[in-house]
Design brief:
3 helices, alpha+beta, 2 strands, globular, single chain, about 70 residues
C-alpha cells in the first residue's frame, strides 16, 4: 500500500527540494520511531493533510487517525 499512498514527496523528498533538509530527517525519524515503539499503539496525526506518513505506521499501529481542517 505504501508505494501508492499519496504524499510520497514528503516521505522521500528529492534533494533538489527546498524542504529536503527538514523533510528527509523527519521522515527517517518517523520511520524509525514507528518501528521501535511497543505494540500495539495508536497514532493521532493532527494537521496531516493526505496522511503522508501513514505508511510508516500501518504495519505497527493498531489505529491511525488523521485530523485536518478543510478550507
Amino acid at each position: 500500500m505504501a508505494e501508492n499512498w499519496p504524499g510520497d514527496y514528503r516521505r522521500r523528498p528529492p534533494i533538489s527540494s527546498p524542504t529536503y533538509a527538514v523533510r528527509a530527517p523527519l521522515a527517517a525519524w518517523l520511520r524509525d520511531e514507528a518501528a521501535r515503539r511497543p505494540r500495539p499503539y495508536r497514532v493521532l496525526d493532527v494537521g496531516c493533510g493526505v496522511k503522508p506518513y501513514f505508511p510508516f505506521f500501518e504495519p505497527h499501529a493498531s489505529e491511525y487517525v488523521g485530523v485536518d481542517v478543510v478550507e
